[in-house]
Amino acid sequence: MIDLQEKLKYLPAKPGVYIMLNEFSQVLYVGKAKNLKNRVRQYFQKSTSEEKTILLVQKIKDFKFIVVNTETEALVLENNLIKEHKPFYNILLKDDKTYPYIKINIKDDFPRLEITRKLKQTGAKYFGPYMRGISASAMLEVIHSAFPLKSCKATVSPNPKKRECLQYHIGRCKAPCTGKISSADYKVFVKKAIDFLNGNDREVRKLLQEKMENASKLLEFELAMQYRNGLKILENLVRKQSADFPLDLNLDIFAYSGNAVASVINFTAVRGGKILASENFVIEECGDSQDAISNYIMQFYEKNPVLAEEIIVSHELLFGQEIEDYISHLKGSRVNLFCPKAGVRHSVLSLAQQNASQELEIIEAKTVNKDALTRLSLEELKEALSLSVLPKRIECYDISNISGTDKVASMVVFINGEASRQMYRRFKIKTVKGSDDFASLREAISRRVANFEDTDLSFSERPDLIVVDGGKGQLSSAFAILEPFGISVIGLAKREEEIFVPNQSTPILLSKDSLPLKLLQRLRDEAHRFAIAYHRALRDERQTRSNLTNIEGIGKTKARQLLMHFKKVENVAMATEKDIIEIKGFGKKDAENIINHFKQGTKD
After folding, report:
1. 20 to 30 A from 446, CA-CA: which of 17, 33, 136, 385?
2. Are 271 and 238 spatial neighbours (Cβ–Cβ below 8 Å)?
3. What's the number of CA atoms in the CB half-sphere (13 Å) around residue 295?
4. Helix 472-482 × helix 437-449 angle, to 10°
């Protein structure tokens, strides 16, 4: 047993990162400190009152720390460790959480505007982000209605021979691909589009108004409606403003609001003096507001470019200067980070803070009602099944296969009545021959209980109740494995929604409208969905791999390597000889066989 109080005495008064661990040495939380000795001690002082922090401290059985030379190193190391370990009590933004931006590659002779989520350091200009309320596609529509810029990917050659397309004839493009406009004249319109994206919408408004009136006079009502729609988008952009900001104001604002129930960060983007985007994010960070905002900002700018000149935060940050330096390095120019107390910046920060607080109130109201119903459903389930404890953690298992092939089992986890998807796991059945669901279930449950000491949090926590999809046969299979562990188990048969319990011949029938039955149905349906999804994925992979093994010299191992490398058969079909021989174990002969195979398929 580790004596934490004794270990606290040896903490150095230096900058670094601390890692909180549970009894199985799993990482619960990663934090940074300018002074490790002072910061880590704060967690174990009685003055700690935040509910999430109290829950964390109750689970801490050990901690580690890493000393670094500078506070900036601590900031970066913390961010890297959070991504690596994905601690339960830290903020972790989704990997695919990026926003749409409008991109203009100004290095091109005839740049086109496009929407992208992939941002590359190629010298292109990016504008955004665009979130709910104002879409990137709507902004592009306004620009193309006002300025005759190309929207297609057609190349512009020195000796164009193409004919003009419809966009030219309706006045939405100057047809640079046919030589109708020079690069210099074209870039005049590009500059005007960039001015508009930077916040100057007066010329666009005037142009659209004139075009709408002219189209109406010429009885081109459909065209007039397009221009009117563009004006409506501009009006929507203006309506979002509650104050006039200077046109050169480009801000990213992060406002935090939290209580014992939840925490919310509002991100608001101001571009060219206009509020372009505003979105709320519910977070699970167990640290204070400073930790939450710092961690959120660091992860946010890993997925989204730094387009603002200033970053505004609702709370003074302990690592504010280090974050400012780090973000400035990412952008390649100076970015100022501060917490304004007055002026226009404080005004827009107040709006962001209001948005965060209002979202928090909604969450709190929903949570109170939802928690009450969930608690009631768990209590009624405990009573109906005569369980000795309230089933806070429930796991449900389902088997999926077709004629005994691609056999899989799913494990879904509900904690306090809610799906905990990060805890879901799936099993590929290895030892069972044929279509034997009972044996498959026994294998899955056996592998589950063998992992109670695993470092994976989803396996190390013991369930209070296990539910299996099926009747007496499935229940008997699971009970034979679980009885020595003292874990309660039931079977839920779908036809009549009968609940089977061990050593009882008569099933339990609950009212169709009862809360505990609805909870069990949600569990069962989720396990079924998760199992089928995995089964289909394996089946598709096997069928695809089977197609590849028809190629001369390509067996199962090489077919799997091809799929892992190229992801799809279509990509394999388009691969060059160079692409293929880059894969370890593939030679020139393999590449020729693969290429010839797909060429032959095309001829057929």
Report:
1. 385
2. no
3. 29
4. 30
What confidence tens digit (pLDDT) does each residue in 148-176 have?
A: 888 888 777 777 667 888 888 877 888 88
Dig out the tokens for 128 from the structure: 């955004």
Identify which has the larger pLDDT, 469 or 401.
469
CA gap 93, 104 in Å, rounded: 28
| pTM score | 0.60
Beta-strand (E) ranges in 374-446?
A: 393-402, 405-415, 418-419, 425-428
Query: What pLDDT is recorded for position 272?
Result: 81
Contacts of residue 101, defined as CB under 8 A and 6 or more positions apart, other chains included, come to: 115, 116, 117, 119, 126, 127, 128, 129, 130, 136, 305
Q: Where are the alpha helices (DSSP H) in 435-483?
A: 437-449, 457-460, 472-482
pLDDT in tens, 545-568: 556 777 888 887 888 788 778 877
What's the token pair of residue 53?
A: 């922090």
Q: Which residue do the tokens 């195979």 mark?
A: 597
**pLDDT single digits (tens) 446-458:** 999 888 776 666 7
Encode 83-116: b = buried (16+ Cβ within 10 Å), e = exposed: bebebbbbbbbeeeebbbbbbbeeeeebbbbeee
Sheet harboring 113-116: ordered strands across? 113-116, 101-104, 125-127
CA angle 593, 599, 604 (to 5 degrees): 125
Backbone angles phi, psi at 492, to 5 degrees: -115, 110
Query: Among residues 193, 164, 176, 182, which one has the least CA distance to residue 105?
Result: 193
Which of 196-200, 443-447, 568-572 is predicted with the least confidence, judged by mean pLDDT? 568-572
Torsion angle of the four alpha carbons 197, 201, 206, 207, in this order, in degrees rounded to the nearest 10: 0
- Torsions phi, psi of 110, nearest 5? -130, 80
Cα distances from 285 to residues 31, 160, 261, 282, 354, in angstroms, run 11, 58, 12, 10, 20
In a 10 Å sphere around its CB, with 0-12 CB exposed, 13-18 middle and 19+ buried, how is residue 569 labelled? middle
Q: Which of 488, 486, 498 is nearest to 467 (CA)?
A: 488
| Distances from the Cα of 471 to the Cα of 189, 290, 431, 468, angstroms | 70, 52, 23, 8
Largest CA distance in the chain: 87
User: DSSP class of residue 181?
Assistant: S
Helix, strand, or coil (residue 191): helix
CA-angle at 336, arms to 333 and 339, nearest 5°: 165
Residue among 77, 71, 101, 82 at smallest CA distance from 29: 82
Quote helix, strand, coil % in the chain, to nearest 5: 45, 20, 35
**Residue 503 Ramachandran class (φ > 0 left, ψ -120 to 50 alpha, else beta):** left
CB 165 within 8 A of CB 175: yes
Tell me the helices (H) and strands (E) count for the chain, helix number first: 20, 18
Q: Which residues of 534-553 are buried (b: 16+ CB within 10 A; e: fewer)?
A: bbeebbeeeebbeebeebee
- Kind of pairing between the strands at 418-419 and 425-428: unpaired
DSSP assigned state of 293: H
At 602, is the pLDDT very low, low, confident or very high (cuts 50, 70, 90)?
Answer: very low
Asked if 377 and 516 count as a contact pair (C-beta separation under 8 A), the reply is: yes
**Taking the CA atoms of the chain, what radius of gyration do you get in angstroms?**
30
